[in-house]
Amino acid sequence: MAIYLPYGLEYNLHKRGGTMAELLLPLAGEDVYRATPPEERARRLIACIRKLNADLHEATGGRHARFLSEVRDREGRPMVTREQIPEIARAAMGDGSIFYNPEELDFDDLRMVIFAAWTGEPLDGGRIRRG
């Protein structure tokens, strides 16, 4: 879940940015919250979550994966390959929780989000559906 959280937030930023912005206060503290312009707070929240994941990755000697490509089995073999991304997206299409997402997702959207979570790159905001 920690891997997907920043990507889910990015995908839904245009619909729930105001709510996300308020989460910066308990996560980063009053000083950071007040120093961050209101229109930047949601993005700052996402950056804080990415930093938390990176800090956990470092603190665990890499055992806490930041990206899907870093998930390994006990022998150190990758558990999620790039070739599996379409299969994971198809499985996600059948997950009932998709109906509760603020923004609609189709197969291509899911594949885009999962690929970003696999590479560790932020989502391309221009490719996010806005319904």
Fill in the keyword field for this structure.
131 residues; Dehydroquinate synthase-like, alpha domain; flat
Structural notes for this entry:
By secondary structure, this protein is mostly helical. It has one domain (5-126): Dehydroquinate synthase-like, alpha domain. Helices cover 53% and strands 0% of the residues. The protein contains seven helices and no strands. The protein has helices spanning 5-11, 13-22, 24-28, 30-35, 41-59, 85-93, 107-119. Helix 2 packs across helix 5. The radius of gyration is 16 Å and the shape is flat. The protein starts with a helix and ends in a 12-residue tail after the last helix. The mean pLDDT is 96.
Count of the domains: 1
Count of strand segments: 0
CATH topology: Dehydroquinate synthase-like, alpha domain
Considering DSSP H and I runs of 4 or more, what fraction of the residues is helical? Answer: 40-55%
* CATH hierarchy, class: Mainly Alpha
| Mean of residue pLDDT values | 96
Distance between the termini: 25 Å
Number of H/I helices:
7
Structural classification: mainly alpha
CATH superfamily: Dehydroquinate synthase-like - alpha domain
Pattern of helices and strands: HHHHHHH
CATH architecture: Up-down Bundle
Rg measurement, Å: 16 Å
Instruction: Note the overall shape.
Output: flat
Largest sheet: none
Q: Give the strand content.
A: under 5%
Low-confidence stretches: none
